[in-house]
Each structure stands twice: as structure tokens, then as C-alpha cells.
Design goal:
The protein has five helices and six strands. The chain has 172 residues and is an alpha/beta fold. It has a single domain, classed as Metalloproteases ("zincins"), catalytic domain (Collagenase (Catalytic Domain), 3-Layer(aba) Sandwich), CATH 3.40.390. α1 crosses α5. It starts with a strand and ends with a helix.
């Protein structure tokens, strides 16, 4: 199950984002209770964050700040948040990740923060010819996959990430 703590936006269909996020969890073989923080910010704020954390002085659509140390090679490996020690990803002596420090106040594994720029999402929705809701959904899923360890730097990683995105939206 995916729990979303959202700030800064009221017009987006959060139950739909949750449903899509849970589909992404299943497709990436992530089981158990996870949470994510979703923050909607202005163009000026995301530009400042992009400059501070990535060294790029321009607006962007979405940023991900992962809590877990997952790599692209981990992205499609099973991960079970239901135990004190995650299973499936080879870290630590017991062959899994220790989630004791990554739990939120409700006991869910906290994946990290997603910061989404509403202004850029609106512009891109017009550019791509779909609704702001659809653009926000795509950006959220894209960022969520980064929190799972997905990346798009190399061709194989990009193919894996795009494949999951397409399946989440029923395009494949």
C-alpha cells in the first residue's frame, strides 16, 4: 500500500495518484506499506532546489529525494517493507535492507520526497496536449520510480523505467 502526504495543492485527484502509485509498486515488485511526501511548489522554488541539489540553475518539472539507497540494479528486484529487514535487495549481512531508520510515524517505509512544480506541469500539459491531471500523474510516477532506484541515464535503465511507466498507464 502507498500512503501519500501531500502539501501545496488541492485540485489534483490524490486517490488516483495513490492508485497509480500502488500499481507502480506492484510492477516494480515492491510489497508492504510505503509512504512518500508529495510537495507542490512554484517555478521559483523548484528552480532554487534544482540549483541547490543538482547544480542546475533552471526550472524543472519534478525532483526526487530518495530516502533509501537503491540503485538502478535494485529497481526491479523484490523489496518487502513488511518486515523489520527488507528482503530481496542484497545489502547487509542478512541480504536485505534494514528499514529501522526509514520508517515514518505510522510504521511505513518512507521512500522519500517528491517535489513537483505545478507551473511547469501546467505548461507541459498544454505542450503535450493532455490534462494537467495526466501530466501530474506521469510526473509523480516518474519521480516515484526514481525513489525505487530507477534511472534513465543509460539505455537499458531508461528502457526498464519507461517500460514500467507505460504499464502503469496501460500503454503496453
Amino acid at each position: 500500500m502507498l500512503f501519500i502526504e501531500e502539501t501545496g495543492q488541492t485540485s489534483i485527484d490524490l486517490p488516483r495518484l495513490k492508485s497509480l502509485g500502488e500499481a507502480a509498486l506492484l510492477l516494480a515488485d515492491k510489497r508492504g506499506d510505503f509512504s512518500v511526501s508529495l510537495n507542490f511548489v512554484t517555478a521559483a522554488r523548484i528552480r532554487a532546489l534544482n540549483k541547490r541539489f543538482r547544480g542546475i540553475d533552471c526550472e524543472t518539472d519534478v525532483l526526487s529525494f530518495p530516502m533509501l539507497d537503491l540503485k538502478p540494479s535494485d529497481a526491479l528486484k523484490p523489496l518487502d517493507a513488511g518486515s523489520a529487514r527488507g528482503t530481496g535487495i542484497g545489502r547487509g549481512a542478512a541480504g536485505g535492507m534494514d528499514f529501522s531508520l526509514e520508517r515514518d510515524g505510522d510504521g511505513n517505509v518512507f521512500l522519500g520526497d517528491v517535489v513537483l512544480c505545478s507551473d511547469v506541469a501546467k505548461r507541459q500539459a498544454v505542450e503535450y496536449g493532455h490534462s494537467e491531471q495526466r501530466e501530474t500523474e506521469y510526473l509523480f510516477i516518474h519521480a516515484l520510480l526514481h525513489l525505487f532506484g530507477f534511472d534513465h541515464a543509460g539505455d537499458a535503465d531508461k528502457r526498464d523505467m519507461r517500460g514500467v511507466e507505460k504499464k502503469v498507464f496501460g500503454e503496453e
